[in-house]
Amino acid sequence: MQAWVIGNWKQNPATSRDVDALLNDLVTALETQVPADTALSKNRCKLMIAPSCIHLAAVSTRLKDSSVLCAAQNISEHSASTGAYTGDCSAQQVADSGATWTLLGHSERRQYHKESHHSLVKKLSHALAQNLGVVLCIGETQTQYDDKQTLEVIDTQLSVIKDLLAQQPELVSSLSEQLIIAYEPVWAIGTGKVPTVEEVSKTHEHIKQTVAEFTKTTEGTTVLYGGSVNMANADAFAADPMIDGALVGGASLKAESFLAIANAFNQANTELV
Ligand code: 13P
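Structure tokens for the assembled complex are given below, as produced in the milestone run.
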């Protein structure tokens, strides 16, 4: 299975200058520190960066000649193209900026922007209409985890895929190629707390089975883990065959830690080959 490590920069960094510095560190490290014959250079683990919307075009341009892809963190629910939607950024505008993917349903958007099931069905449809891949983020809160409701919560969140396909069955082939699920327990985001690898593995197995039923694919969907992934714990997550990569927040803001996490998944993948 193709491994992915995706950096969600959230509302960071503060300035364009900081963005340039981070990208320079990243690109330089990829170009110079990785010998030509290593797994990383063979692109076993795909890398993607999701900067803030204001930096999307600059980051896409800077990464154009590299192997690193660029994603938005969100797209407009109201229109795939243009319209009177102040403050929004459409799937078409994101694609035009050079990005090829978008995150959707991140818990911070569900919490602070009240992103609903209904709006996510529309956003998924808009993204695929503009040929953007989607990293759909799902995960339970601390209370739901304590109440052992993880799988129930995840099933409800995943049902956006089922509902989209009920409306637009023709999207089934796009979804099998352009959908990544990121399992991010809300209580693990930015807290330093992580579930055990065994817990994540079981949850990922459930997600893969559920999505396969919707999309009628035999090949498993890519499922990433997110929430306090860092240089120290990446190896353990990478060693589990159900964990296809990581969605990284804080540790993606330094090239060194982001690439160390990517390398953990490269090593694990190389060993599995
Ligand atoms: P942290 O890696 O900072 O916990 O953030 C995870 C996340 O929310 C990525 O989308």
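Residues 8, 106, 184, 189-190, 226-229, 247-251 surround 1,3-dihydroxyacetonephosphate (CB under 6 Å). The chain has a mean pLDDT of 94. Further analysis is deferred to the final report.
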